[in-house]
Design goal:
Blueprint: E1 2-4, H1 20-32, E2 35-40, E3 43-44, H2 53-69, E4 75-78, E5 81-83, H3 92-95, E6 102-106, H4 115-124, E7 128-131, H5 142-150, E8 154-158, H6 159-162, H7 172-179, E9 185-187, H8 200-207, H9 213-229
Parallel strand pairs: 1-2, 2-4, 3-5, 5-6, 6-7, 7-8, 8-9
The structure holds fe (ii) ion.
Residues 6, 8, 81, 189 line the site of fe (ii) ion.
Length: 233
Amino acid sequence: MFIDIHTHILYDVDDGSQDIETSLLMIQKAVADGTESIILTPHVQSRPQKVERSVHHEHFEILKKRVKEEGIHVNLYLGAEVLYRSHLEPDWQELSLAGTKYVLLEFSMQDLSPVEDVVYDVTRMGFIPIVAHVERYPYVDFELMRKIKDLGAMIQVNATSILGLDKKVHKKHPMKMLKEGLVDIIASDTHHITYREPNLLDCYTYLKKYFPQEDLEKWFYLNAKKILSDKNT
Ligand SMILES: [Fe+2]
């Protein structure tokens, strides 16, 4: 079973799914692969963001209704993927994953960003940052990853990077991160159905050859489950 905490399945809000039918296909694929819960994390504070936050809520309610009508069994939650911008102060609670204290935070892939300071500040505000696709930031080395984990952050890696499908990432890099015990969660960061599709099962099947079941469960399910259980406390 999988929980996907990073997806661009919510329709017509960013550079992910552009219509509700595509969103439904993406959800069906994820569910057929064994996904029980999905957090929808549209881009916020970054260029792909097309609409105001209120539209995320509107589309989320419409999508949930359609999923129910289609008889698809899956738990859907709303979150966001927030790009760090030095001049903006996001409403972290509004943008958190499923209303918990966990926030999905991304950084620029080109410009050196103060990852450690931001993680520290967000943590001080009472939130737990999950740093999105850490393997994509060339300026974040293993030492910095350890530092931000010590500060209380969680590290998310994209399944696409592990599978070697992200041209910007050398496949060996995320594999080494996994081996070094630096990764908390693997997510799809899915954007479409024919490319960057929901791919947790592919990644799980690939990693099964290299890692014990215990590790896989943590990366694909248990650590994400902890986030969602925070919702009920
Ligand atoms: Fe993303």
